[in-house]
Design brief:
With about 190 residues, the chain is α/β, with parallel strands linked by helices. Helix content is about 40%, strand content about 20%.
């Protein structure tokens, strides 16, 4: 049976890295490509990393009910297109959503059967170090992300699963185990 896996947590916690490892290890999982109004970062490709939309295009899609969830984060809109998720589920693929906490809540309300996983840092201060090391945001943008992160960390008990990303290999193993158990797959990956 296909499932929707919601992977959430604060900016800089390593969601993207963990999801990349998960997609390598578990067959038939597909990452849903989110839409956003933010500008592409260097190396990002429209349709692969995000569907980059103007604010007007995004608003039109909201009015048309095209989003399973959407949220404003650090001044930009982000959303998951309903058709993209439904198409993949109908094809028999489980779908991974990498979204923020407010979007995860919307998916939980719309799809109670979704599997929700919160990725937490070992300590809040680690987020600033990781965001600085990433080198993609200005200092004021990092400060804004950390303000949101404090609120998101307070919500982690809302989620069925919590993975602490202290040691990347251990966190990747734990996330893989959660997905395999939920899908009824063997726990030993075929690598």
């Amino acid at each position: 049976m296909s499932k929707v896996f919601v992977i959430t947590g604060p900016s800089g916690v390593g969601k993207g890295t963990l999801i990349s490892k998960l997609l390598e290890r578990v067959p038939d999982l597909e990452l849903s490509v989110s839409a956003t109004t933010r500008q592409p970062r260097e190396g990002e490709v429209n349709g692969r990393d995000y569907h980059f939309l103007t604010a007007e295009e995004f608003d039109e899609r909201i009015e048309q009910g095209d989003f399973l969830e959407f949220a404003t984060y650090s001044g930009n809109l982000y959303g998951t297109m309903r058709t993209e998720v439904e198409r993949r589920l109908s094809e028999g693929h489980s779908v991974v959503l990498e979204i923020e906490v407010q979007g995860a809540r919307q998916v939980r309300a719309a799809m109670r059967e979704s599997v929700q996983v919160f990725i937490a840092p070992p300590a809040p201060g680690v987020l600033r170090q990781r965001l600085n090391a990433r080198g993609t945001d200005a200092p004021h943008a990092i400060d804004a992300r950390l303000e949101v992160a404090a609120q998101e960390l307070a919500a982690q008990d809302e989620f069925a699963y919590r993975v602490v990303n202290d040691d990347l290999a251990q966190a990747a193993d734990e996330l893989e185990r959660i997905v395999r158990v939920e899908l009824g797959l063997p726990l030993d990956s075929p690598q």
